[in-house]
Amino acid sequence: MYKSGQRFNDKLFHITACSNTLGFARLGLSIAARVVGAAVVRNRIRRVAREVFRLAQRELPALDLVLSARSPARDASRGELRADLSQLLKTVRERCASSSRPSSMPIEG
Predict the structure, then answer these.
(1) What is the pLDDT of residues 4-35, one digit of tens each?
(2) I need a surface site. Which of 5, 39, 53, 102 has the fewest CB within 10 A?
């Protein structure tokens, strides 16, 4: 995944994307303790990331995404995390749309 995937960076996050044949996008989280610190902070970042991905999933092509937090994410507010990740997912969608078709899988919730 890390060797063959496309990489996307922003201020707070790093995404590695690789196409899949499932017809919908999937998210993997790699939030390192040495980068962002305490479990409370890591879990907050994970919760925000899952929520932003859930809301954006229908618009994403069939991709496997691995999301990593960068050290500035440690001190970012929820709003900053959401905005940065939303923008990064928009970039991923625009650059990877030609290689995959959009997801048609409904989101439960």
Answers:
(1) 678 898 899 999 998 888 888 999 999 999 98
(2) 39
43 located within any domain: yes
What's the total number of domains in the chain?
1
> Which CATH number characterizes residue 85's domain?
3.30.230.10
Which residues of the chain fall short of a pLDDT of 50?
100-109
Looking at the domain assignment, is residue 68 inside a domain?
A: yes
User: Which amino acid, 100?
Assistant: S
Please answer whether residues 27 and 49 qualify as being in contact, where contact means their C-beta atoms are separated by less than 8 angstroms.
Answer: yes
**Is position 60 within any domain?**
yes
Domain, as residue range, for 75: 6-96
**pLDDT recorded at residue 95:** 86
How many residues does the structure list for the chain? 109
CA–CA gap between residue 3 and residue 78 (Å, rounded):
31
Q: What is the pLDDT of residue 44?
A: 94
